[in-house]
Structures are given as C-alpha cells and as structure tokens.
Amino acid sequence: MFSSGGFNARTSRCRLPGTEDAIGALVALAKDNPDKALVMSHIGQMVAGGFAVWEQLETGEVEVRFTTGETYLLAETTILRLA
User: Fold this and answer.
1) pLDDT tens track for 25-38
2) Within 13 Å and on the Cβ side, how many CA atoms surround 42?
3) CA–CA separation, 13 vs 24, rounded Å?
4) For labelling alongside 64, which of 22, 23, 32, 75 has CA 20 to 30 A away?
C-alpha cells in the first residue's frame, strides 16, 4: 500500500512522517495562507495520532489517507476527495 519511506519509483511518492518537524515543514509551505496552514496543522496532528498517513507526490501535492478509508488530495488551492 505505502512505501516504507523514501521515494517509491513506481508511484513517485514520498511518505512523510507524522513528526512535529514534518508537520512544521508543511505548515511553513502555507505561510502566506493562514487558513491553509491551520488545515495542514490539524491534518498533521491526525497523522501524528495514527489516524491517517500522508505522502508527498512528485508534483508537490499531498495525499492523505485516513484509517477510515477516505483519501484526499491537498493541492495548492483545493482539497479534493479521491475516495
């Protein structure tokens, strides 16, 4: 399902850890948009709590897969539910 870490050559994804550093890095990317930073912070806390995993795609977008089965794509200006 997910790679154990690093880029997966088949899918060009990089699994992100649910650490404060990883959360901070993604929140920093949204520094010009406080609403986006808040959403990224909350999603990061769900990842840290074990309720989801997130992967950064080669495009820079982030895919979030919750343990309940929902999958979302966090793009530059939108959040798209994939499943």
Assistant:
1) 777 777 788 888 88
2) 7
3) 19
4) 32
